[in-house]
Amino acid sequence: MIRVHVRRKSFGATDVLKDVNFALQDGECLAILGKSGVGKSTLLRLVADIDQDFTGQIERPEKMAFVFQEPTLLPWRSAIDNLLIVHPDLDQRGAKVMLARVGLADKADHFPGQLSLGQQRRLALARAFAGRPELLILDEPFVSLDEKTAKEMLALTRGLLKEISPTTLFVTHEREEAELLADRTMELVGSPATVAPNVVRPNFIREEAQ
Ligand SMILES: Nc1ncnc2c1ncn2[C@@H]1O[C@H](COP(=O)(O)OP(=O)(O)OP(=O)(O)O)[C@@H](O)[C@H]1O
Ligand SMILES: [Mg+2]
Question: 51 C-alpha to center of ligand 1: Å?
Fold first, then answer.
């Protein structure tokens, strides 16, 4: 399971997050909603241990995968190599199965620059799931896609979540997406941002009395 206690996160003199507390059971998916600039990506970076500069405490499993807001693929490596480099245990066959799973069976030898944004996002998703992570962090994985592609990717992600069942944090602007994919939804509001009251119910760690 993961337990998140962010008492305070600031950039310079500006507090961005304050008392963001929640816990997730193994295999649970939590959607995080909130306006642009509220601090969603900042929170994900803390949870992923990419940023350690905050006050609080986070317990997380070690096996983690992060799908960033912008696909972070290696442009000079083919689609299949983008999987194999991150997952040395994976063989060609396993990588091809994963590519096929996200609809990229015929793109194994294409470079990221030869893929559409939707295809790049599928590849980033395949790369994340290929390691069978215990904790999966998705930062707006379907943003800037047309509606049909976004829906397809959502259905794909749902299937993979069901099969691999990582504990998942899923940031989105779309409440509908949140409700389709996640078990629970949490909204960040205010400045500094905190969890909107009464949105996350089970497992919510109460704010400690000041
Ligand atoms: N490295 C940084 N240095 C200074 N300020 C930062 C830094 N990273 C983020 N911020 C600020 O922290 C706030 C939260 O940013 P963050 O990227 O977490 O927002 P977000 O909720 O993910 O927004 P969006 O939905 O647009 O992706 C913003 O005001 C942003 O300007
Ligand atoms: Mg963001």
Answer: 13
* CA 137–ligand 2 middle distance (angstroms): 12
Closest ligand (CA of 139): 2
- What residue owns the CA closest to ligand 1's atom 29? 37
Asked if 140 and 173 count as a contact pair (C-beta separation under 8 A), the reply is yes
**Span 157-181, mean pLDDT?**
94
Report pLDDT digits (tens) over 104-157: 999 999 999 999 999 999 999 999 999 999 999 999 999 888 999 999 999 999
pLDDT of residue 200: 55
Ligand 1: which of 18, 20, 32, 42 to mutate, most ligand atoms within 8 Å of CB? 42
